[in-house]
Amino acid sequence: MRKLVLLAIVGLAAQLVDGSLGMAYGVTSTTLLLATGAAPAAASATVHLAEIGTTLVSGASHWKFGNVDWKVVFRIAVPGAIGSFAGATFLSSLSTDSAAPIMSGILLALGVYILIRFTAWGTPRGRLGKPVRKRFLAPLGVFAGFVDSTGGGGWGPVATPALLASGRMEPRKVIGSVDTSEFLVAVAASIGFLIGLGGEGIPVGGVIALLLGGLIAAPIAAWLVRHIPSRILGSLVGGLIVLTNVRTILNSDFLNASFAVRTASYIVIAVVWAGAIAWSLRAYRAERAEVKAAEAEPVAA
């Protein structure tokens, strides 16, 4: 019973982060399940089955708060489902450890770019509002879906930074669209896992616990992402991407960094991340003050 309660709390926290930052539900939940001794394929299947419910509620909540670009959802969800189903059906038993450092290196570069861009210049407005091209979304969806099913998570960490880096969508619209499209990805992955595993080793109690926690957090996260300034949200997302992927690279067999190196790296990243958020908050307040001053001038005249 204690284990199920813990899983429910993890599901709540993971969905709160995922719904407000566009990533981390699968990674967080799968990590805990693996720590309890679950097989990789069964852990990924458990998380994706729970995500059918959490992503449905999360998508509906984001839609209610106006965080969804439906054109992007439709163009990325179907290719994502194809990639996710293929990965779950044919490749869930294969190790992706060797590819993890390369993948994390690409995501790390995107994370650094996003962190600097949003912290220093705020929301990109040069291309903001322009449609995201289908020839970009389709391959992104296939790749993100494949990574998501074979790695137990990855839809958000791959799709969110790529869409943010395009500069064509507001952060809240990116997060809402990615979360909404993940419903179809989760359904396809679950079908693939059920075909491949036949339900063997999938803990029903774990699925329900993760689902309940995520359902509670989904509407809260959708409201939160609408009210966090985009500049600050971009700094939050960028820092999370950097921290997550640096951790993957340092823990990989390729580097196998010592405890001291890992600790020092995390501390440096945490300090820089906190400074970036503080800078973005200060810049946002200054921008708000300028807008209010500009609005008050005609009245004073």
From TrEMBL:
Keywords: Cell membrane, Membrane, Transmembrane, Transmembrane helix. The chain crosses the membrane at residues 72-91, 98-116, 136-159, 204-225, 232-251, 263-281. It comes from the Bacteria. It is a multi-pass membrane protein. It is found in: Cell membrane; Membrane. One of its GO terms (cellular component) is plasma membrane. Belongs to the 4-toluene sulfonate uptake permease (TSUP) (TC 2.A.102) family. This is Probable membrane transporter protein. It comes from Actinopolymorpha pittospori.
